[in-house]
Amino acid sequence: MDFCINTHNAHYFSSVEEIPEEIWHSLDCIHNVYFHPNYLSALANNHPEIEFSYVVLFDEINKPIAFSTIQIVNFQLESVQNKSELFLEKVKCLVRNLGVILPKKPFKIITCGNTFVSGEHGIFIKQNQNKQAVIKELAKAVLHFVNSNPKLKKEISAYMLKDFVKESLVITNELHECNYYSFNVEPNMIMSIDGEWQNFTDYLADMKTKFRVKAKKAMERSFVLETIDISEENIEDYLSEMTYLYKNVSSKAGFNLGEFNIQSYRELKNNLGENYVIKAYFLKNKLVGFLSAIVNQKTLDAHFVGIDYQYNREYAIYQRMLYDYVDIAIQRKLCHINFGRTASEIKSSVGAVPQDLTIYLRHKNTIPNRFLSLLLSRIEPTPFHQNYPFKVKNFVAQV
């Protein structure tokens, strides 16, 4: 792909390796795993179907002030699920008829954010910056990235910036002035780890009786499962089976921008070491599940899981994984767990609360963009019953 020309305040890079060391040093962002070259290169190297690029914004004295990943993905409208299916089908027909999405042409989205992790893990802005101004400059930089490349200008259908928490909206709502529309997706489920918990037993002791009994039953049902930690030495033995189990889970997701390549685990484990956790679950020597997680500063981010659903109910595989995430966070003396999207109710029974996330999207053409808002206005998070499993002292307000 022909690459675009840098502007006075935006420099573009087609690979992580092209970014000079002094930029990383000046940005001071690599303490966050998601902005570390080792993490970014592992994603790009294992997802050839996605076009990865990177943009760095500079201030008036040519100092780096912001960084963002850029990914170009093919989006399938049919992947959006919604409780108002009849209305949604009508909107889909409308946007197709208006040329918002052509049935035989890939709907290519250029996105700023992390395709494979929910949350603010794709855009970094240095402290003491006018963040509203930086966000608008980033939107302009992405527009230039597309318009300066004839091939991209023809192929790209829409622009997306994702996933912003509620506290950031005072900054990111500036994007409405750039003709973006916003909508909410399934929330992140976030859990705080009590600093007094020294082990899993302490965690159970702080639960209400109903939820403690539920946890103990899940641990009893899953007791027969053998667990091992996946390391750089043994990962090759399990990647094929893990891919199959992951696809069991990913096929049930209601909103996917891209399919994660489990082969990435090899490089992520090599690059991140103990900060990338993979645990496998076996039933009579048969792999029936796995979990993965990233340790990012003081947070444990649940990454992807794989499950053999024919054994899930009887052996409480998924429930066991959720409790193991809690155990890992306690043992590593972390402060939070980000359980990610989906299965919100069961995650709340473990102790997680919802963190709303907002995505901004715009079509490249004005008229289709107006009708795209009709579809976005009907995309709502799936309602669920929020559980509060802890005694009063451990009640955690919504984040």
Automatic annotation (TrEMBL):
Organism superkingdom: Bacteria
Cross-referenced InterPro entries: Acyl_CoA_acyltransferase
Identification of the protein by name: Peptidoglycan biosynthesis/recognition protein
Protein source organism: Tenacibaculum adriaticum
